[in-house]
Amino acid sequence: MVDAPNISIRVDGCKHRGPSMYGARVPSDVQVREMRPEDLGQVRAVYAEGVAGRGATFETEVPEESVLAARWLPDHRWVAERDGQVLGWAAVSPVSTRACYAGVGESTVYVTSAAQGSGVGRALLEHLVDAADTGGLWTLQASVFPENLASLHLHHAVGFRTVGVRARIARLDGRWRDTVLLERRRDAGLDGHEETAPTTSG
Questions:
Q1: How many other C-beta atoms can be found within 10 angstroms of the C-beta atom of residue 120?
Q2: How far apart are CA 72 and CA 144, in angstroms?
Q3: Is 39 domain-assigned?
């Protein structure tokens, strides 16, 4: 990992207290809610846009709905919808099966191209962070291509910090790509007091 001298767009002092203190300017007719099984077709379609754009993921093929659903923690998956149409989604995946990492997750957020710039992505990420804070997760991680400045701004705006750049971490279409590693720690319990880990098996 190397330093990230050009990645300095961070927002310090973001404290998370209760439901959505950030105040995203999401359109009034857009609802953020839990993802349901019947949403998976539209969720997959939104992800397909991200895969095709080559600016958000190393995947080059779109997984089946069941494969996508199996990746995410059941209580940490959300969609933004308008009149039954999914405009974007956000979810948390576990980073490890080991019990000591039970409170660490990798966050993901995707918004359809038609809704980008409307506040949908921020509303989703705020909702995800709120749920993570109250749902026993103490660290959220995210990996973003350094060229994806909109995503970097979004994550910094809700309290993620840049840990560093993982240079030439993997190939996409035969070309080495870097990723920026981002992290957000839950503020409660990080002042020397004991935290209670979520109950897990294994």
A1: 26
A2: 18
A3: yes
